Amino acid sequence: MIDVIETAIEGVKIIQPKIFGDARGYFFESFSQREFEEKVCRTQFVQDNESRSIAGVVRGLHFQKPPFTQAKLVRVVRGAVLDVAVDIRKGSPTFGQHVAVELTEENHRQFFVPRGFAHGFAVLSEEAVFQYKCDNYYAPQAEGAIAWDDPALGIDWRVPQGDRILSEKDAHHPRLAEAEIPFSYGEPLTECP
Hints:
The protein is mainly beta. The chain has a domain at 46-178: Sandwich (Jelly Rolls). Helix content is 4%, strand content 39%. The chain has one helix and 13 strands. The protein has one helix at residues 33-39; strands at 2-6, 13-17, 20-22, 25-27, 47-54, 58-64, 72-78, 80-87, 98-104, 110-113, 117-123, 127-134, 143-145. The protein has a six-stranded antiparallel sheet with strand order 1-2-10-7-12-5, covered by helices on one side. A five-stranded antiparallel sheet has the order 9-8-11-6-13, with no helix packed on it. A hairpin with a 6-residue loop joins β1 and β2. It is globular.
């Protein structure tokens, strides 16, 4: 059972599962296709990924170009991250705006990032184990990205500048205004109610 929290950007959703806990520990249903389709979006996830990162790592802002575009359902199983989705659909009333949510092993929240959004996260704990479901297979030739630190996006990553750790690739992505963006607002990217 889940509660769905709407965000300031249509289609981007925070999912709060119902946790059943007692002296032994806790239990929750981390994913139900039926309930997800009823309450969030009609999509079929085909690939699960997991990453481990140390404190200060910033990953992103990534997306996959058509026809390999991906929607993602992400969560943290250890530690804490600030997770970010940026609307990169040309013509969208929220183009260039973002939603940021803290995902932790304690709050068990999940974050749904639809197709047409760039995605990234920053590690706020000593380490973080991050899991995500994708509704399309990864294709290296379809990789796209925008600069995580583009001032026009105004993202507060909550990691001090001297503590940020980036891959060589993530340190050199173009700003949104200079990037090749393959998405337009109104295209049927995901079947969401």
